[in-house]
């Protein structure tokens, strides 16, 4: 399998290459040169398999040429051995049509663990036996940072620099990052919002002199390997609800579009996905883009769902590339126009291509709270605010006879105050992280400028040999 950039001019790479590179050298995102497909019989054969075996079956076409089936099985076994539920991503029924797919049973209590525990294993495997030193740079709106740090803390040959917006993540999210004492972990709180943090990360990758000095890689969902790992749980859930014999719909609370793009990949691979509900909070650029083609950035509004407080959804570029005929030059022009003006209109081909599968849904704070109360009172399920955004959107788009699965993206204890306000229940942290508030924090606060952040990274990273 080879991978190409959405902007058309970066060299194609194999799976190992895109995993270590993260962002393409032309500023684009890597995607497979073709979508592998699983036949209905192959999908049916997934029924009853463990999560690890499902993961190997789904991901093997993407890693061919870089990993053997035995190597991939070994990596997946190690990655998912730290989850506290044997099913890894169990399904929970809410009512006749509604289900939750719990993605928060990993070590940092969020869906990002599903991908990042594997990504940490992949980094170590691909660096083994070389003298290369990897400098990972990422931005987080809450959960990516802690999951990425947990996945690579203490690993040889890797340093991680994680940017988060100061004061705009929950106390649990922040502490899960800043209390990790490994010497290869560097936490940076920037005086700005997530979109600014993400732009700073991209700027470092696109700075040719900086990129020559350090071997840079990414753990954000701009890294293809992360998205690949997330495709698995769509298959795992759907076959348990009757696929391929019946279609299944999914509601995905999202800000950066990575998690829902993984659902699109599953559909392109042959999984019968009836609908992908793109659930946003009031930072609704994705809902607007899907409804009217208006992809224009507005000021970020801070909400009780900080992981979705985003107005520039980097993974949307992958969808626009695929729906626009995979014309890298055309998309490069489209995206450069957006980067200059913070506004663009989707083409007719992009809008029409999205319309058959996607629907965007904006959920405000009141409906989020109502969804939390509904889950608690009718099904005894305490859910976090992000999951509640997804559930509220799911209930508006449920079709008779089609199971609707809401992705439960974080443990409710990560957002204790918001959950307690809505339900009267204050969720407790699981025992394995119960001492979180007794640990010492360690992070650096910087102005949200390129010189300040790149200078800090340069002062603490290991240059290329």
TrEMBL record:
Gene Ontology molecular function, alphabetical: pyridoxal phosphate binding; threonine synthase activity
Pfam families given in the database record: THR4_C (PF24857), Thr_synth_N (PF14821)
UniProt pathway annotation: Amino-acid biosynthesis
Thylakoid found in the keyword field: no
Enzyme class: lyase
Assigned EC number: 4.2.3.1
N6-(pyridoxal phosphate)lysine modifications at: 112
Keyword terms: Amino-acid biosynthesis, Lyase, Pyridoxal phosphate
Domain of life: Bacteria
Cofactor: pyridoxal 5'-phosphate
Chain ranges of the Threonine synthase N-terminal domain: 2-80
GO biological process, one term: threonine biosynthetic process
Catalysed conversion reaction: O-phospho-L-homoserine + H2O = L-threonine + phosphate
Family: Belongs to the threonine synthase family.
Name this protein carries in UniProt: Threonine synthase
């Amino acid at each position: 399998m080879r991978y190409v950039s959405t902007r058309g001019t970066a060299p194609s790479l194999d799976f190992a290459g895109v995993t270590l590179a993260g962002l393409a050298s032309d500023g684009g995102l890597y995607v497979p040169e073709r979508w592998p497909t699983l036949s209905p019989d192959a999908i049916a054969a997934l029924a009853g398999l463990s999560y690890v075996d499902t993961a190997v079956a789904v991901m093997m076409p993407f890693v061919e040429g870089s990993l053997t089936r035995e190597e991939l099985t070994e990596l997946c076994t190690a990655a998912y051995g730290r989850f506290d539920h044997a099913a890894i991503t169990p399904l929970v029924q809410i009512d006749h049509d509604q289900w939750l797919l719990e993605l928060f049973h990993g070590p940092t209590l969020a869906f990002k663990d599903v991908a990042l525990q594997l990504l940490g294993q992949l980094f170590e495997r691909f660096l083994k036996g070389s003298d290369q030193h990897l400098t990972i740079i990422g931005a987080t709106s809450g959960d990516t940072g802690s999951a990425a740090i947990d996945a690579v803390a203490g690993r040889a040959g890797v340093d991680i620099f994680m940017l988060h917006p100061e004061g705009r993540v929950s106390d649990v999210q922040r502490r899960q990052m800043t209390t990790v004492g490994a010497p290869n972990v560097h936490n940076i709180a920037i005086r700005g919002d997530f979109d600014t943090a993400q732009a700073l990360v991209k700027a470092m990758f696109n700075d040719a002199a900086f990129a020559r000095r350090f071997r840079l890689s990414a753990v954000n969902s701009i890294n293809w390997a992360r998205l690949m790992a997330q495709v698995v749980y769509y298959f795992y859930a759907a076959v348990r609800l009757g696929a391929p014999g019946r279609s299944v719909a999914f509601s995905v609370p999202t800000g950066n579009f990575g998690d829902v793009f993984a659902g699109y990949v599953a559909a392109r691979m042959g999984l019968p996905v009836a609908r992908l509900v793109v659930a946003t909070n009031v930072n609704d650029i994705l809902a607007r883009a899907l409804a009217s083609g208006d992809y224009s950035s507005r000021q970020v509004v801070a909400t009780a769902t900080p992981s979705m407080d985003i107005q520039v959804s980097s993974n949307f570029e992958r969808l626009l590339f695929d729906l626009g005929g995979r014309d890298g030059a055309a998309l490069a022009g489209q995206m450069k126009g957006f980067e200059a003006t913070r506004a663009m209109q989707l083409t007719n081909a992009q809008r029409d291509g999205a319309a058959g599968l996607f629907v965007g849904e904006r959920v405000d704070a009141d409906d989020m709270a109502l969804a939390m109360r509904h889950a608690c009172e009718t099904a005894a399920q305490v859910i976090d605010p992000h999951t509640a955004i997804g559930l509220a959107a799911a209930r508006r788009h449920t079709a008779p006879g089609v199971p609707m699965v809401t992705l439960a993206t974080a443990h409710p204890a990560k957002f204790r105050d918001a959950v307690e306000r809505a339900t009267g229940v204050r969720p407790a942290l699981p025992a394995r992280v119960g001492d979180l508030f007794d640990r010492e924090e360690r992070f650096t606060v910087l102005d949200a400028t390129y010189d300040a952040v790149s200078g800090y990274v340069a002062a603490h990273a290991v240059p290329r040999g």
